[in-house]
Amino acid sequence: MRWPKFDAVEDARRVSPLSAAPRLRAARATILVVEDEVAVMRVVRSTLEGAGYTILTAGSVAAAEAIGASQIDLLLTDIALPDGNGVELVDRLRATAPLLRVLHMTGYAADTGGILEGSLLPKPFAPKQLLDKVAEILCCTHPEQGRLGSSSAGT
Asked: What is the pTM of this model?
């Protein structure tokens, strides 16, 4: 998988006036990034930190569960992880934080079945796509919309 070259700080600054206000409000958020590929984790972390987000990282389901959901505003998780998957992780964290906002990312978008389009970021993605999707989820999405199989997802 090839990732586009980027400058995280410069990309974070390239924001249209219409999208700047929601992103500025969202940039105060804390995001738990769960990704087992070191190169992907570096790109995601650098991009989000460059935009002002506070980032916590985990390379596995177990590490993410140890951090927990109490101190985060958004869970950004890969679907395929070495000790489980991001979908199961979401279910476990939502047991204690039912309104947790979630953004899934995967290199296998065609195989995601039940994951809603609104909570899925296919890999590879450009830094601007990541920033836009994170801001959208934090500012404009009801937590239920990132839930698998949720009957209220379309409302």
From this structure: 0.75
